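Possible regression after last week's pipeline update?

I re-ran a chain I had predicted before the update to compare outputs. Posting the input and the new output here so someone can diff against the archived version. Not blocking, just want to make sure nothing changed silently.
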Amino acid sequence: MVPNEKSFPRGGTVHAEAKSADSNSNIVFGASQKKTKKAPKPKDNFLKELTEDNNEQLEAFSAETLNMDTLQEDMLVMGVVKETSATTLQIALPGRMYARTLVADISEAYTRVAKSAMSGDTSEYHDLTELFPVGRIVYGKAIKTEKLDSNRISLLLSLKPADVHGSLHHKSIKKGFIFSGAVSEIQEHGYVIETGVQGLQAFVPCEEQNQTLHVGQLAFLKIKQVKHDAHQSTCTCVQVDQDQIKIKSQNETNLDYILPGSIVRFKVDKHLKDGLKGSIMNESFSAYVNEHHLGNALETVDAYDLNEEYNARVLYVMPLTKLVYLTLNLDIKVEADVQSRDEENEEKREPIKVGSVVEKSKVLRLGSGGVLLLLNKHVAGIISYGSIRANFKGNYDKDEVLSKYARRTKHKVRVLGYDVIESLYYCSDDPNLVNEKVYSLEDIKPGDLVTAKVFRKDDKIKGWAVKIGKVNGILEQFYLAPNVRYDVGQQLKCRVLEVDTDRKVCYLSNRSEYLAKGLNLLTDYTAAQADNVYTGTVVRCEVNYVLVKFGNGIKGVLHRKNLKGQSTFFEGQTTKFRILSRSKDQIILTLPEDKFKLGEICPVEVTNVLDAGLEIKITCASEDDDEDEEGNPKLEEFMGLVPLRLLSDYPELMHAQLRVHPAGTFTGAVCIDQNIFSIRDVPYFSNQLTKDWSSVQVGDILRSYVKQVNDQVVDLMVCVRNYNKPVKVHVKMLRLNVVKNASVNLELDQLLLVKVLSKEAETKTLTVSAKLTDVWNGDLKGTAKVVEEFLDEVKVIRKSLKDKSTPIAKYSIGDKISVVFKGIDPHTHNWKYNVEDPEAGNLSALLLSSLTGTATPPQVGSKQPAVILWIDYSSNELLISNKKHDIEHISKSGELPKNLVGRAGMKAKVLLKLETVAICSLKKGTNPLVICPIRLHQNDIENTGSVDLRQGDFCNIAFIHDKLPIAVPENVWRIWRDAKRAATEEEIVVKAKKAKLDETSAKKVKTEETTTKKKAKTEEKLSKKKAKAEAIATKRKLEEDEKTTKGQKKTQSLTNGIVKEKSMQNGLLFFEDKKPFKSAKTETPKTNGVEAKTRLPGVSSFWESDQQQAASSDEDEDQEDAADVQPAKKKRLSAKEKAKAEVKEEQRLREIEERNADPKARLETIDQYERLVIAQPNNSISWLKYIAFLLSNTEIEKARDLARRAISTISFRETQELRNVWSALLNIELVYSSNFDDVLKEALNCNDPLEIYISVIDILKKNKQKERLTSLLTTILNKFKAEVRVWPVAAEAYFWLGKSDQVHALLQRALRVLPNQQHINCIVSFAKLYAKNDANDMAQTLLDDVVTSYPKRIDIWSVYVDMLIKADLIDSARNVLERAVLQKLKPNKMQVIYKKYLQLEETHGTEATVAKVKRQAEEWVKNYAKAVK
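New output (post-update):
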């Protein structure tokens, strides 16, 4: 705000004019001043002269330009827009200074529009690049600010009319006044203007078709008509161009109304040494022009005659002295306009660019601001005196230094910049700057190799800031070379990836992938042609896509659905990508063709160790048979990744494998999928042939890897070449349900074995099962082998660490050590120790809290003996026990004593339970630690092998290895031992059946006649045999029904009690075992007189096979053979047997009918669901149950077709039922397909769009689709903004998205568009949402406003009180009810309030408060009765 003071200061000394010419000490507010007295007035004014002070005026004898010292706070200054961005303006000020203008400093209207844009309404928003072209003249209030990171002063320039014109008054505004106003509102016939002048309203008439201004935009306006009132003035204005804002010369008495940027007539009175002195407004005010503000930068003051008038533009007015400073350069042009203008008028010259070097610049003269130069014979430049002084340190002779810049001398200079107000280039002749190869961003381009110098660490980007010459560079975290130590001042060889001219910085990388020779870097969209391969870096990983960044800021998207397999990516991964397609600036990517096949083992070099795994490099000969300069085969390098899960099969050892594979390590890895390799699978692929699609057969057991897991379906990638589809397995098909409510935890890249159930050649699809009983025969020797492999891998890790002299590698399991107590972990309560060994360094040991029990911890620093139970190479810790019993009875030997081989029922204590194994110790004797597997097999996802093992408990174990102490719980051993025996007997039966079938088929190969006879004979024998078998089965059944066993339940047989043969399917013989199960009591053996634990449920029922069953089957087959020789006599059933059979059949049919008729019966087959939907065709619940059943069996296509069938079946009048099915179909498409948008469009056409949109919001929230939900909300709020129910739904979604700060703006937007009668309901709905999301303060504020404005709304009072009670704000609820009972309402409404009040006090108050409420109610009734009378 401009100070409104007198035009001269009080006091001061009057200097003689002769002495003031050489004086430079009396500088006031940026100009050398002198005092002069005006001429004496006529004698007739003598009396008036006696009553006035001497009218003395300060005058400047030097036209110095503006600088930071003379610039006053809140001073109005003219500026020129030099650079623009979406949110900031850079403005050039006089004196080669610069200021910034932010979004909030444009105008009040623009601030309002910008806030609306942040809330999502961008209809009126235009960024600053559209509103302020470069070269636009502005004026504003200067504000000095101090930067926090340094003591330097920076300038802000506020252009707000309220800040600039705040000191002006509307009554002083006259016709012809020119000012800068902002468009506040656009109407049909013009603009409403934000003037900033107190009490002034302005309007610019303009028809709609001619309107070019936007809300918030500034424009120069000239008042055509003005009407003054006592408190307010109105005016009509017209828009004028910045070159036409001329003010007529008149006797103006107030400089505050001559604003910067205005054009006035300047009369030259005197030539000064650094400019011109004159006057404006008919000699009313003194004005000055600096020599650098003349009409042309190459002109001198002598070119302007005395007493002549020239057009000049006001730059600024000094606030206190009221001295006006002008520029005669009216045609202000930016740098490009200057060069183009010169090229039109003169011959073609080489343009001058900022940063360029001018070899021969000629000195014109020594000016007030520096040495004035002539550049390239046509433009002016200047070397400031400050720049010259910076080249000298200490004392120097000024005259000697300036003698170097004599007139017409030539110098080599570098152009530093261009000043648009002075129209000259400022330069430097500093040798360091002139000879610098990289001075500006124009000196480098993407793809260049440069040497950068590290100068500081940038924690925001987790990278480093560097310098390339004079150019700033950034090394982001993703682009840093791994395993390199960075220090300030370090020189790095880097590749330029991007040059950002807006931020004036370049982005670099020193990764080896970008420094490689022959790098193919994408720097231009036109080069992004299909099938081209470029190196890029992954900058973002999402579930469905990967965002890749190339050079020059070009980005591409790799959709995971475009990949043949499920590749693993991580942020920062740098590799090669192939262009799949390009549409304008949208690039779709895929991976290059596979260089290595599945199962191919390659020698690799580890280049980087990441948290996500290992980056590797494979070097091999070029396929083009090229040779290098020395005649050797040309080598190619390929980059790959070994994910953490593919380092080891065992979770405990994955991070340990990272330790033994540092950068520079050479090892072997097998290709799994494109650029994904595995170290853990090298032994398997070394000994097995890799299957392809043609060699896969039904019944094969294949390796697979988990690639995606959700609540219902697991996606697996099977190790089959030329088959890249993920196979889907339902979670229910993974579980045996052996352990009740056991959780299934699967990780990405986890190994599972699968059994091929079917192979569809037409669709090239495999159906597999990963259930444990399908892929494992129950042999515990296989389990022992897996544990042995685990221990072997531990030994390899220990050996590798021992070779590197790692302290932890010198210790073994069972070693006795001495430890020093350090304290107790406050979170885990584990006891922490340090190993007392100088060679161990700072090796830590841990005693788990489960082993400490109730023992008292020792003193810190005390020593204790201990025994090592396990060595954690991943976290570099020893797991120990300090108990005396463990120290004495645990031996170091890792071999199993011969007396324990094959023993079962041994009592042991579980000391540790890790992720892969459990560590146990035998109760008696000195023996090695026993290793028990957590899982019996890779597919034992329910951990059935260790379900009864708990850390610190005792258990009975059975040894399953001949040499190593590997065991399983005894109950597990007995179950799977019997399962193995039964499986072996089952295989014998199958072989016998196959042999018999082959023999039978061989006998049937005869002549036609013999075949016919044999066929007739066989049919006769089969009919007799069948009748005999039925009779035998019936007899056996009756005998078994009558038979009872003491202490046991009656055993019921299944079907026929024989092995039932089936037809050949896919070349394999399938059979069912229908023999009755044995009782658990007779099968479970006893150990040491103690009955063994009950076996795990479910397992035995699958695997058990009875030897007697096989014997009976053989006996029946022998009888069949005898029947072939001599037909058996047909036995007729007696009347009693026939009656029993009929009763039994009738009972069976009745059970089926009752089960089908029972509405509570559990549906388990497709036929049952079909009957359900046929019986209730319009019930969506029945259809949804059917769909859910199909989805649980991974029948996705059938579920989709069923939903379509339901839509066509349900009556069109049942709109809600149809919407339910449409919601289910949309959910299916979102989860299992990519056709969601098309189905949504179809659903919107067939249903009420609003209802569908609301359902889709719930669907997207359940599936956590945040991006899709955000775009959907924008659509709904634009289409259905007049629907009151839409806004609370959107607000709830905002809370779910984490945008709670935008909910209030959403409420304000709703109140603007909704009718007034719906405002209350909308506000109450929002208040409930605020309370639901724990924003009780905001909810109280909203409801308090409503009940204050509408006190008769009892329902809102009730909602308010209930909300406070639910939030446990009892005192606040009591206060609200106190306010409510004071209202003057009808008796029925007051009754509701007092009931609510009484309930509150009865629940949360005391007897006294209850009595108080009752008393108040009685008083109200009495007062009301009196008032009625």
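Follow-up from reviewer: compared with the archived run. The first helix runs from residue 17 to 20. Marking as no regression found.
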